[in-house]
Design goal:
Elements: E1 5-9, E2 15-26, E3 32-39, E4 52-58, E5 65-68, H1 73-93
Antiparallel strand pairs: 1-2, 2-3, 3-4, 4-5
């Protein structure tokens, strides 16, 4: 597995290799880190790339951490705003 990839296990126990699109830290919801990712080779019904996000809690004793679901609507709005900003920056750079 490459450094910019993670494996996500869904509620059915299936593993999905995902490419990390970007990560960021935010203090608004308790100094959390967030990771935005896309399942490798998976697209939606329109053929568009799928994106998802989760909160990330660093484990100080190990090199990894724990992915946590984003529960609040406010957190989702913040993540979507960050994603949209990044997408706009990439479009203007092209």
């Amino acid at each position: 597995m490459e450094e910019n990839q993670i494996t996500i296990v869904d509620e059915k126990g299936n593993e999905h290799l995902c490419e990390i699109i970007f990560t960021f830290d935010a203090e608004k919801f308790g100094k959390k880190s967030y990771v935005v990712f896309s399942p490798v080779g998976e697209v939606d019904e329109d053929g568009d790339q799928i994106y998802d996000a989760m909160a990330f809690e660093q484990n100080e004793e190990e090199s990894g951490g724990t992915l946590l679901p984003i529960d609040s609507e406010e957190e989702w709005e913040m993540v979507q705003e960050m994603f949209n900003t990044l997408a706009e920056e990439e479009e203007s750079a092209e």
